Hints:
heterodimer; A: alpha+beta; PH-domain like; 7-stranded antiparallel β-sheet; 7 strands; B: alpha/beta; Rossmann fold; 3 domains; 8-stranded parallel β-sheet; 32 helices; 20 strands; globular; BSD_dom (chain A); BSD_dom_sf (chain A); BSD domain-containing protein (chain A); Tfb1/GTF2H1 (chain A)
Amino acid sequence: MSSRQVVKRAKYKTTVKDPGTPGVLKLTQDKFVFKPNDPTSKTKLDVEFRFIQGHKVTKEGSKKPAWLNLIHSQGSYIFELETFADLHVCRELVGVALNKQVPGEATKVISEEQLSPAEMALKIKLLQEDSKLQRLHKELVASGKLTESEFWATKKKMLDQDESRKLKQQIGFKNSLIFDTKPMSDGRINQVKFQLTPEIKYQIFALKPAVHQAFLNFVPRKMNEVDFWNKYFKAEYLHSTKNAVAAAAEAAEDEDLAVFLKDDEILEIEARKKVRRVDPTLDMEADQGDDYTHLPDHGIFRDGSKDISEAQNSLYKRTLLQDLNRQGAVVLEGKTLDMEMEHPRTVAEILARRKQECDGVVDEERQNRISKMTLIDDLQAQDNHPYAPLCIKDPRDYFDFQQANAVKTLDDSQTGMEQMKCSLGSEEAYGSLRASISKIKTTGLRDPLFSPDVALKVLNGLTKNISSPKYHLGRSSQGSVLDILPNTTKETLLDHWVCSQELLRHFWSSYPITTQNLVNKTRRLKESISQIYSKLEDIKVSAESDLRHHVSLVVHPMQQALNAALLHYEADIRKRNARGQKPNGYV
Amino acid sequence: MKFEIEDITVYFPYDNIYPEQYSYMVELKRALDAKGHCLLEMPTGTGKTIALLSLITSYVLSKPHSPLKLLYCTRTVHEMEKTLAELRLLHDYQLRHLGPAAKILALGLSSRKNLCVNPRVLAAENRDSVDAGCRKLTASWVRAVAAENPGVPTCEFFEQYERAGSSAVLPPGVYTLQDLRVYGKEKGWCPYYLARHMVQFANVVVYSYQYLLDPKVAGIISKEMQKESVVVFDEAHNIDNVCIEALSVSVRRQTIEGARRNLNRMRQEIDKFKATDAGRLRAEYNRLVEGLALRGDLPATDAWLANPALPDDILKEAVPGNIRRAEHFIHVLRRLVQYLEGRLDTENVEKESPVSFVVSILNHAGIDQKALKFCYDRLHSLMMTLEITDTDEFLHIQTICDFATLVGTYARGFSIIIEPFDERMPHIPDPVLQLCCHDASLAIKPVFERFQSVVITSGTLSPIDLYPRLLNFNPVVSRSFTMSLTRDCICPMVLTRGSDQLPVSTKFDMRSDLGVVRNYGRLLLEMASVVPDGIVCFFVSYSYMDGIVNTWNENGILKEIMQHKLVFIETQDVVETTLALDNYRKACDCGRGAIFFSVARGKVAEGIDFDRHYGRLVIMFGVPFQYTLSKILLARLEYLRDTFQIKEGDFLTFDALRQAAQCVGRVIRSKADYGMMIFADKRYSRHDKRSKLPSWILSHLHDAHLNLSTDMALHIAREFLRKMAQPYDKTGGTGRKTLLSQEDLEKMAVSGLDDMMY
């Protein structure tokens, strides 16, 4: 089925009832070619799949012959194949070829970013549902002010809401597998009880492949499921008593029980296979027998242990340490099945099939890991990452700027007032402090801390701003300034508001600038903000004389916010040019 | 970066360098200039290997008229892999700067088990079986038979390698064991014998300690190395133990029984040869009259392990008359085996010197000292004459002959200890006769004498003046470097009490105290809830680790710990331990977090790195003293006191603390790394224990961190981790340079080394 070309005998039909022209149909991934058997016939075809919109086939088993119908804009090409097997082969290739065209078109449209089809469909769906979002997208992305990924970065909540329905998170194993099957004993009756749920069965199969294999072999041919688990838990009980002699005796009597008591041969084979794929810097098996660091006291192992280990019964001895290592390995591998399948035999069979597919040769990856482990990254030069490393912004910049914003709101009422500096150097601040101190020393503290004229100006400005709209609109408290404006002006202002909010959000999230990408982004955003500022100014100027004041009231806060961004951009440029290279990865 | 150290241009494959690495190179260059030996203690995690390789290869490149060979000895195969990977990185850098003039041949050498590509031979599971399987296919007599009879199996890789003749060479480059196997498969040549051959021509050889220190192996591999070589013993803090183990032999009852079976088998072979090929036995007799030590020109495949005595001590004269004939030699060995069996039937612990033991052998078995000296060589010659290939079956008689040769050769520095039973099981007889080497300088003396420069380097060589005494050499440079950290990225703590203020220790009488076990468990549980990613715990022995983990399991502490992180444990099964380490790294990589339980004198503590997020905390549970009731250890302590005036307590403490320092040093690999170290035993707070830690640990061990309880340690851990999460200037922000760039080095060259202040 992976062949790239199919050649079949077929008849070409111009209509359904046409007896058809016999010939040879040749399908590739780009086009199909039909050559009639009669060289003098005029019905030769050479069509690319770009012009094909869909395809249909007749169902196998119906009375109709094997037809392949390729649909294009002006009709369709109908081919009758000799057998349905031929039809299936052609259908698969046509399906592949048609699917190949669709991402090609999508990739052409959005050449910058390679998106998955599902994600692309989701975004298109969101744009269609929300006309405002669509208009905003058209204005910002189509005109090149923001890139696609930048636009959707702030819309992650919308994407996540849809994705959360699709991607259900898989729950892994708990790190307490070997504790879940411990027996419960009430102490009064000479009995132990084991709790067994389907999930616990699944865990046992994952932990112990030999038990898994025995289940597939014994159930239901040799014993039923209840007997199987009874034998299993009897073996577990013998292990928990840590009596290797008793375990050996029981294994000699019952050969079925011996399967659970012995060491897991499947695990050993698996382990030996895995060791060959382990990172060479961890491969301690290669050292075995080669050196003396592993043999203190020349092989006679003495560390004060009083444990008597008998060689003949070591086959039936299992330690907690092995269980812990095995459990860690299983938890890391994670679950490979959905727990909704309740039937244990089905679960066991699927597990067995799944494990055979996991063996892959990764010898080259092994070599890459050793060189990666060896490198000392501290000594290498610092490379430019696309993300910003974690850092702490200088708090003084933040508070200085907040103060500057507060002062700007009084700008319209403070005509002629002295312009305050937004950022002071330490020398200037120190000089100002010294000047204040020396002045206080000379003249002492004045009775009023502020000049009465200045206080009066501030108070008047604030009062005027608060009461001005109400004074002009005294008729109705429900009314709004926007209602007075014409509809076209109102819509334009609202659009500009949404657009400027989006741009400002991207602008402020770009600081601190740490990479070259952010430098380019802030420059683009600054230009866009300047354009909107100019448009708002035009709206203010072009308004009718009786509405100009109201329009000015509405536009003023927007212009203030935009102006703050512009000022910050200019100040940041001056700062970066003055200081040069900054530590901690600043650009 | 490229910079000058006096008259040497050094090529260093990174863009920055640590001041310690630079100082290390300066001291190393002095030792090479003086053509002498040196001791260098460099803190763990400051790039010792790359500094070493970089300077020595640059030194060789700067002096093309007197080339030096670098023999780099590591302890383990996985350390060998890491060294070769770093060397490849360096080699690529030098090629980019110097072109083809910088080409070198560098390769790793290991046993057949790690280099063989023949599936039939590899089917064997342990090293001796792989060696025997190889010999069955490649011995000269097997190949002679196969030349006449095509049905006899041979190794196709070795045959093709032999047919290639002198054209079987490795092109220049850096070859790991994996590279050698891949190259051997491509060419169809045997990688093991190819590597053995190319070692003579290589510029850099990376192999294990035993290839230089064990006379049985060094006699085959390293006897042709040139004198103009630099020998580097990396991670050499345990080198005295390696020397001692190389010259020690143990004989047990199963050794005696196995040797008796071997002698019967050899007797049968001799009878068979008498009937079919008497000329071979006669040729051997004539060769023995001339002297065994003069033999040479043996095919490489026939070489077995060499004489266990050191080269200068091997007699080069005629074999004594009473063991020249094969039957006589078998008879002498049989008497020796019988005598040793009689000595094992003792009721008390016996300790003898080799001199008295040799006299006793002469009186009871009628074997003189000279015959004992020749036992190993004579056995070797006989087995070759009899064309025995399954050498793994004859290890027992080989052990007996090892014993005989060593006891007949050396009178000083050894003792023979016979123990009738293990102290742990007094009612079960398990006698063992041990020839114990106490003098570590015996094995390493040929290395110091033969080679021009020997570099002994590690992260834990404190106190540094003890090693020249133990190994009996005079270093021209002996230096211990401190560590200039960009920030306080290591946080050692001494924990002496639990939260309930009960003292914690693994002192033998306190070991099984339930309060101690519970407090250790609480410590680990609290730390697992605070420290992210990986935590490594070291215990003092396998049995202690097994006992304490089982007790935690019964108390329920282990279940609580496992709610925070996965748990992996080192066992004595190396396959299981390897997989546990691999899974441990996977757990740390995916953010799940894991705890690794290990043993201070085990395999993991030697050579496995837990850098970056693989180890944010190391807990040393207890002080890893050796088992002080061991008779061998007591004999060695007595020898050290008599010979070097080293007190028993001092040596035991020194040995324990170097193990502890080695364990906690696993977590730091660069100055950008960080990790905490908890020494969880009240004995660490005493000055005589603490002062034996390396200075790079001591300089960060504050007085406030010397007597902590669990909750205090928890508070310090939280503060440390919060501090390590802050950004910092990695070139050194407080006026001291902890990371040097090219411009810094050029400035230092102008103004002199005094600018380096750290």
